[in-house]
Amino acid sequence: MRTIAIAKRVTKELLRDKRTLMLMFLAPILILFLMKLVFSVNATTDVKVATVNVSNSLVTQLDKTSHLTVLKYDNVSKATQAMSDKKVDAVIHSVDNDLYVNYSNIDASKTKATKSSLKMSILLNSLQQMQKNLQPLGQRIVQPKIHQKYHYGNADTNFFDKIVPILMGFFVFFFVFLISGMALLNERTSGTLNRLLATPVRRSEIVFGYMLSYGVLAILQTLLVVLFTVWMLKVEVAGSIFYVILINFVLALVALAFGILMSTFAKSEFQMMQFIPLIIVPQIFFSGIIPLDTMAKGVQAISYILPLKYAGDALSGVVMSGDGSGKILPEIGVLLLFLVVLTFLNIQGLKKYRKV
Amino acid sequence: MVDKVISMQGIVKKFGQQVVLKQIDFQIPQKRIIGLIGPSGAGKSTIIKIILGMEVADSGSTTIFDAQMPDRKLLGKIGYMAQSDALYEQLTGQENLQFYADMKTLKHSKQSIQHVASVVDLTKDLDKRVSGYSGGMKRRLSLAIAMLGNNDILILDEPTVGVDPALRKKIWAELKSLRDQGKTILVTTHVMDEAQLCDDVALLLDGQIIAYDDPVSLEKAYQVDSIEEVFLKAEELDNANYSNR
Predict the structure, then answer these.
(1) A188 touches chain B (CB under 8 A)
(2) Tally of domains within chain B
(3) B76 touches chain A (CB under 8 A)
(4) Does the beta-carbon distance from A190 to B71 stay under 8 Å?
(5) Nearest to B104 among A194, A199, A354 (CB)
(6) φ and ψ at B134, to 5 degrees?
(7) Which of the four pLDDT bands, split at 50, 70 and 90, describes residue A233?
(8) Which of A12, A144, B21, B55 is the most interior residue, by most CB within 10 Å?
(9) Which residues in chain B come in under a pLDDT of 70?
(10) pLDDT at A292 over 80
(11) pLDDT attached to residue A139
(12) For residue B1, what pLDDT is reported?
């Protein structure tokens, strides 16, 4: 009974706070939209290469490579000057059949692209030479045709598609954490928490009341974010949208419990903001946006104590490879464990303000 | 029939090294308005917090209706008004009252809300949001919340700060009528002429109750003619005691 009254009151306060509502519902959409624009740009880099004294056949071959332009120079010093002027990204010059390559290396990805293009071109070049030599013998080298299929996604799947499920979880976590933490903090600093605790209300009823109202809000937020990503950003969800919402809902409750717990350690809104670099930013690093398997083992271990990692794994699984309930169950289980522990701590934590 | 509604015995409370209350013995009988006066920092709020069970004393015991505090269910019998207004600003006055009525699980919340609103003269403004209230209106709403329900005990921390004289008179009249219905009321105040309106006055100084009697007896005992002077004289004597030690 009291739980519902508290939930109703918290919801009413939220609905009347237009700025917070905008933050919860419009901000994630705006950021997702911007990220789509930023990360969906074709990831290939355009490289300009200067050649000095390089055989014509190789130059033609290099020039055929997409996203690579060849500029011929008469001597090395001119070419090097061009590189200093940032007109070219690499200088290739040939002495006695050997190739000397000088990379500008301002942009590591361009260096990499040049390296692989050069290797490819040399290979193709020698292959052509061989073919020429073989032709008189009436033999031909048959090159296989490549048939490509994508188990998940399609040829246009890019970085954005990979991070979008994690981002959805992140927004839910971040905004619920911040807003619920602030709400309880406000209740504490304005004295209403003390007054509330001077009534026969149970400590657990306060925590559950908050959970109820923010849970409903989180469902709405998730629905909006999911529908926006699916319909407007055309991100394909391989699995069931229901699971996406379920995971986000559980994550929101964890975020809420986390926010309430952290707010007990903050004396002001500013101190609450100080938790962002401590609590939120590490979660981004370990949420799966940056591949975890490339990290050192010890560092990977950190991720196991961060709820966003489990939500990120489960969400990626559902969105990218269509995981069903069986596969996401362990992750949801861990999130629920977080939730139970944090909720218990919160109910105990309120003892600070009333001893029974 | 319980005579002592609130009883504090041998209460000592420390915050870290600082001793806020030293050996408080404080009995509050039924059907009285008790004024708790003392300078700021004397420990008035701490006494209230211990009575409500928000703080636990380091030693001593507190009972309400012979039940040991802290006790959550007993809080349903207590109406509490804090020093700060502590209202939900985004909600209307009506919604604030309804919320606290729900917290106390009142049966006839509608009539109860109507009644307390009329006592503090807020009936017309109940549908406005609290954020649009004046300071005095907030104070009155806060008082109304404390009076919600049929509380046996009212604990009011500075109830009439920022309230105009006409309304203050009305509030005191209501407090007296509540007392006559058998309620027990504990009021803290800075306003000395309000202390005169109390049935009994407890003077709190340096974490000790240095005097506790009805105003007239106190004035006689200290040979002065107002509670304010009683207070000043008591403070003087206390200081003198200190320097004599």
Answers:
(1) no
(2) 1
(3) yes
(4) no
(5) A199
(6) -80, 170
(7) confident
(8) B21
(9) 1-2, 241-245
(10) no
(11) 66
(12) 42
Distances (CA, A) of A119 to A65, A78, A101: 11, 24, 12
> What is the pTM for the complete model shown?
0.80
Domain A47-137: top CATH class: alpha beta
CA-angle at B144, arms to B140 and B149, nearest 5°? 175
Instruction: State whether A198 and B102 contact (CB < 8 Å).
Output: no
Q: Where are the domains of chain A?
A: 2-39+158-352, 47-137
Is any Cβ of chain B less than 8 angstroms from the Cβ of A200? yes
- A199–B100 CB contact, under 8 Å: yes
pLDDT at A161: 80
Chain A residues whose beta carbon lies within 8 Å of the beta carbon of residue B75: 198-200
Chain B residue at shortest CA distance from A206: B103
pLDDT digits (tens, 9 = 90+) for A243-264: 988 898 899 899 989 998 998 8
**How many angstroms away from the CA of A264 is the closest CA of chain B?**
16
* CB-based contact A168:A226 (threshold 8 Å): yes
Residue in A191, A353, A355 nearest the CB of B82 = A191
Tell me which residue has tokens 């969906």.
A40
Q: Mutating which of A2, A9, A17 best tests the B interface, going by the most B Cβ atoms within 10 A?
A: A9
Structural domain for B10, as ranges: 4-244
| CATH number of the domain to which B219 belongs | 3.40.50.300
Chain B touched by A351 (CB under 8 Å) = no
Helix (H, G, I), strand (E, B) or coil at B78: strand
> What local confidence, expressed as pLDDT, does residue B234 receive?
75
CB contact under 8 A, A355 and B103: no
- In this predicted structure, the answer to whether residue A140 has a pLDDT above a threshold of 80 is no
> What is the secondary structure of A121-145 as a DSSP string?
HHHHHHHHHHHHHHGGGT--PPPPP
